Amino acid sequence: MNRIIVGISGATGIIYGVRILKALRTCGVETHLVITQSAVKNMIIETEYTVADLESLAHTVYDVEDVGGAIASGSYRVDGMVVIPCSIKTLSAVANSFNYNLLVRAADVTLKERRRLVLVVRETPLHEGHLELMTKVARAGGIIMPPVPAFYHMPKTIDDLIDQTVGKVLDLFSIDGKLFKRWGTKDEMKLVRERKKQ
What we know:
The protein contains eight helices and six strands. The chain is an alpha/beta fold and about 200 residues long. A six-stranded parallel sheet has the order 3-2-1-4-5-6, sandwiched between helices. The model has no long low-confidence stretch (mean pLDDT about 95).
């Protein structure tokens, strides 16, 4: 069984974090969840989910202030970590190894152990400071994946857009969540041909 840490920080887009927990559970992946207080506030503003709802989707839940949690140690084996959504504050802390809570510490450990770290940075527009922080994380081995929607799969709902982004994140961990139609599939190529005839 794969084991992935899911960090949810205080940027808008908490629904991405909810959706990836559901998708990972469906795929049989063991999830280790850590949520910041700002994320909890955003969840209340943006969704009808409760903390209990979110925690029920994970296999193990950690207190963000528990810097001694298992995921704070490199000797605790995981396949990687995603922070989804990732706030600029969290991005800054990860970029500068400022391990002030368990989420950032776990991300720092993921980098130092050369495991896959994906930050789904939710901010726009971006100034030079944001871009420099992203570059620092990328140079340390992290992957920056803003939730930029694609439209070639003809999304009909907001859920379709969310699933495409979450599906792309899962791809980075070599997990096929089957959440969206891929470019180059027979269905997609047929759709392209039909559009050209119009």
